[in-house]
UniProtKB/TrEMBL annotation, chains A, B:
<dbReference type="GO" id="GO:0003700">
    <property type="term" value="F:DNA-binding transcription factor activity"/>
</dbReference>
<dbReference type="InterPro" id="IPR036388">
    <property type="entry name" value="WH-like_DNA-bd_sf"/>
</dbReference>
<keyword id="KW-0238">DNA-binding</keyword>
<dbReference type="Pfam" id="PF00392">
    <property type="entry name" value="GntR"/>
</dbReference>
<feature type="domain" description="HTH gntR-type">
    <location>
        <begin position="20"/>
        <end position="87"/>
    </location>
</feature>
<dbReference type="Pfam" id="PF07729">
    <property type="entry name" value="FCD"/>
</dbReference>
<dbReference type="InterPro" id="IPR011711">
    <property type="entry name" value="GntR_C"/>
</dbReference>
<dbReference type="GO" id="GO:0003677">
    <property type="term" value="F:DNA binding"/>
</dbReference>
<dbReference type="InterPro" id="IPR036390">
    <property type="entry name" value="WH_DNA-bd_sf"/>
</dbReference>
<dbReference type="InterPro" id="IPR008920">
    <property type="entry name" value="TF_FadR/GntR_C"/>
</dbReference>
<keyword id="KW-0805">Transcription regulation</keyword>
<dbReference type="InterPro" id="IPR000524">
    <property type="entry name" value="Tscrpt_reg_HTH_GntR"/>
</dbReference>
<keyword id="KW-0804">Transcription</keyword>
<protein>
    <submittedName>
        <fullName>GntR family transcriptional regulator</fullName>
    </submittedName>
</protein>
Amino acid sequence: MTSVDALASLGRARALVARSTTAERVADAVREEVVEGRLRPGERLPEQDVCTALAVSRNTVREALSQLVAERVLVREAHRGVFVARPDRDAVRDVYRARRLIEPAAVRYGEAWSRDGVAALRTAVQEGHAAAAAGDWNAVGSANQHFHRALVGLAGSPRLDQQMGLLLAEMRLVFHRMPDVREFFEPYLARNDAICALLEAGDRAAAADAVTDYLDAALAQLLDAYDALDR
Amino acid sequence: MTSVDALASLGRARALVARSTTAERVADAVREEVVEGRLRPGERLPEQDVCTALAVSRNTVREALSQLVAERVLVREAHRGVFVARPDRDAVRDVYRARRLIEPAAVRYGEAWSRDGVAALRTAVQEGHAAAAAGDWNAVGSANQHFHRALVGLAGSPRLDQQMGLLLAEMRLVFHRMPDVREFFEPYLARNDAICALLEAGDRAAAADAVTDYLDAALAQLLDAYDALDR
DNA sequence: TCTTGCAGGATTGTTGAACAATCCTTACGC
DNA sequence: GCGTAAGGATTGTTCAACAATCCTGCAAGA
């Protein structure tokens, strides 16, 4: 006799079984190339090239590329092709507009605030420090993303987690436009540490304010960098 | 001699020129059917049927359906087909978890708070009252969505607007599972009015708190309805 | 020199047909 | 009632083709 609880538990695992059509795997592969920076912002992705590179048919490739367009990782121009997204000033401003509402709110009011949630933050902070000590600034960027993902994780909302994933993927494209990312990550190691400490002390309001300050500072720095970037 | 300003203005209009591939139009058509409730939650959409109904090829249909799956309007089960999404308790809880963070924050801190923004709210409120007077509770639901869309619009963020659009589309599917929607819309006409009045008076903090209360009440009512719904 | 118009080639948008893999149904035997 | 096998239907994926559109280069004209 199987218990109802056991069946419900199995039901939640269904997503793991079902996964993985070819189109999804193609999308995953291309997304990986983009967020890791091996495909530069603005670069073109001819369908035929993706077909031969991954040995799948053009229809499947189109399905995968459409998904990445919906994720804002790529942009499609009709009859011209798909390109790696190249976020402009407005995009950066808007991403931070969204983050500035979501992240502090998750810290202040998130339902999933718990010892485990804060522990995930601490892990990301340590990951960042370790990467900085090793001089791997790309890894520091990844750790930073884990930190902010963990912040939003305090809300306990899969939908917000997913949305945050899109915003952070877009941020990676922003950083890939920058000549040197160290200046964008180094100042925030200490800030992450401070935010984490406030949360460990249980002061969610102060932590939320610190996150707001953090985001304002990061946006200002990025906009300055954009001024120096294109004309 | 064309001025630089005029060219920049044209550039901003580019999105209007580029629009409209067949797959997008198919996606729009199917989304419309779902959101308007002519396709019920849980209903199956065989690819072939969509092909013949809209006179497009199966590949194009698949591209459109994939997009709607990404929007959570449809769900795909491998080798079984796509179905109109049928949000369960967890989905409802999570949608409200997200809304409860985003909407009050937009009201409290939104950058686009302005006379025009509040005017859009007032318009939605009046639309709701008019529809209620006419006894058209479906239209009241639409007006309610316009109201919440306008709330998030106060943030002035296209990305948040889009996210809110997805959440509201999911909410329509929730309501389409309900036998009678009047009970879900009627109590909130007065609440919308009150929230709008607070914002017209410039009291954003009180308005944000009222939005939070609103969402908590709506979620509780919906979960009760779900208890009465499935077993 | 600068612009305009026009072939030619390449890529995208879309279609149609095909096939293997998988699922659903039904019938059969136990 | 339960496991199993056969048959049909649908999905996942590929291939090949064509029209529409874009880009390039070049020639003609102001």
